[in-house]
C-alpha cells in the first residue's frame, strides 16, 4: 500500500456530522439523521441517487447551509477557525465570473481576503500551473472548453491552499475523456497537497476510481446507509481501471447502491 | 461543394454594407420625395421638398443653436439624474426587500401615469421652467434604469454568491465584484431605452409647458413654426430632434459594446 493512503483509524477526524437534519422552507426534508466522519487526508465520495441530499450535506460542511438539527464539527489542528478558512469548493458548473479573466477568477478567493494582485501573482500562477493552464491566464472563460473551465474552477479552489476540498458533482457535465483526465488531475492534487477531499457523485465508477472510502446515501430520508473502504487498492492510475480489483470494487459499490434503492422502494 | 477561401476585400464589404444599404435607401427615398413634390407641384406649406428643408436648416441654424443646446442639456441632465436615481434606488431595493415592497408600487404609479397628465401640476409647483421640465423628463427616463438595476443585481449566479460567502466577502466586495458586474448587461440595455426616453420626456414636457421666448428648446421651435405655418422650418427642427435621438442611440450602443464586448453574449462578435 502507498504511504499516502490514509490509515483510517489513526487519522484525526476533520469533519464530524452527528444526526444532521436539514428541512427546507417548503417542508422538504433533504437530510434526516446524517452521521458522517471524514478523517484527515481521506478522499471520501458521497454516492447516491439524485435528491438524496448529497449536495445539501456538502453545503452544510462548507457552512453555506445551517443544519436544522444535529451538530457539525470542523476540527482544525486545535480550533474550528483553522479549517474554516481553508475550505475549497468546486461546484457542478465551473461557476466562473464571465467578465473576468482566468487570472482574475483564480485570484478571487485571495482578493476577497485582501491580497492585492501583485502579492497574489505567485500563488495564482502556481495554482494555474498545477492544472496546466498557466498559458491561459489572460483568457476569458468563454474562450475555454468545458474541461478547461472546470480546471480553472479547481485552480480557484486550490489557490488558498485549503486543507479540505469539497466537490459537488464537478465532472458530471463533461465528456468521458475529459472526465478521466480531470479525475487524474484531482488525484494528483490530493496527493501533492495532502488534501482531504469530499466528492459528491452519482457515478459508481468515478467514486471507485477516486476515493479511499465511499459513503452511500439513501433518499427519503437522506442519510448515510452504507460505507465501503477502498483503501487497499493503490496506486490509482489509468491501469487501475483495467484491473480485476477495480471491477470487484465497482461490483461491491454497485450492489450496495442497488440495495439502498431496493430498500427505498420497499419502504 | 468545397468552401472557397475568403476573397480579399470581402471583410471590407461586410463592414461597409451595414452603412451603405440604409444610406442608399435613404438617398433613394429623398430623391423620390424631391421628384414627387416638384412633379406634382405640392405647395411647401403642405410638404416641403428635402432641398427646401435642407436650405431652411442651413439658413436658420444659427437661430436654432440656443434651442439645440437647451434640449441637449435638458436631455442629458434628465438621463444623468435617471442613472443616479435609478441605480441608487435600485441598489436600495436589491439590498432590502422591505424597502422594495414599500416603495416599488409608487415607482410604478409614477411610470404608468402619462407624463403629459402630470406635467401641468409639476409646472405649477416648480417655479423654474428648466427644473420643471427636468422633473418631467426624469420621471419618464428613470423607471427602466430602476427596474433593470433591481433585476440585474438580483440575477447574480447563486453559486458565485455562495463562493463569496465561503470566502467571507464584505458587503462592499460583493456589490463591487459580483452584483455590479452581473447587473451591467441589464443596466446597459436599460440605458439604451432611457437615453431615448429622456429625449422624448424633454420634448413632450416642453410641448405641455408651451414655453415661449429665447430660452427654450427644440419642441418650442416646432410649436412656434406650426403657429406661424413655417412648415419647412418645422421639418428642419424635427430633423434636428431625430439626429439628437440617433446620436444618443449610437452613443449608448457604443458604450454597451465597449463595456460588455469582451464577455457578454449580447455584444460578442461571433466568427463565422
Keyword list:
heterodimer, A: 267 residues, alpha/beta, six-stranded mixed β-sheet, three-stranded antiparallel β-sheet, 8 helices, 23% strand, globular, B: 272 residues, mainly alpha, 0% strand, flat
Report on the structure:
The complex is a heterodimer of chains A (267) and B (272). Chain A is built from eight helices and nine strands. A six-stranded mixed β-sheet of chain A has the order 5-6-7-3-8-9, with helices on both faces. Chain A has a three-stranded antiparallel β-sheet with strand order 2-1-4. Chain B is 80% helix and 0% strand. In chain B, helix 2 packs across helix 5 and helix 5 runs antiparallel to helix 7. The mean pLDDT of chain B is 88. Classes of the chains: A alpha/beta (267), B mainly alpha (272). Chains A and B meet through helix 3 of A and helix 6 and helix 7 of B.
Brief characterization of the structure:
By secondary structure, chain A is of the alpha/beta class. Chain A contains 8 helices and 9 strands. Chain B has 9 helices and no strands.
Main beta sheet of chain B? none
Distance linking N and C termini of chain B:
18 Å
Give, in order, the helices and strands of chain A. Answer: EEEHEHEHHHEHEHEEH
Structural class, from secondary structure content of chain A?
alpha/beta
Mean pLDDT of chain A: 85
Stretches with pLDDT under 50, minimum 5 residues of chain A: none
**Alpha-carbon Rg of chain B, integer:** 24 Å
Number of helices of chain A: 8
Low-confidence stretches of chain B: none
Described by its quaternary structure, the protein is: heterodimer
Number of helices of chain B: 9
End-to-end separation of chain A:
40 Å
Major sheet of chain A: order of its strands? Answer: 5-6-7-3-8-9
The residue fraction in helices of chain B comes out at over 70%
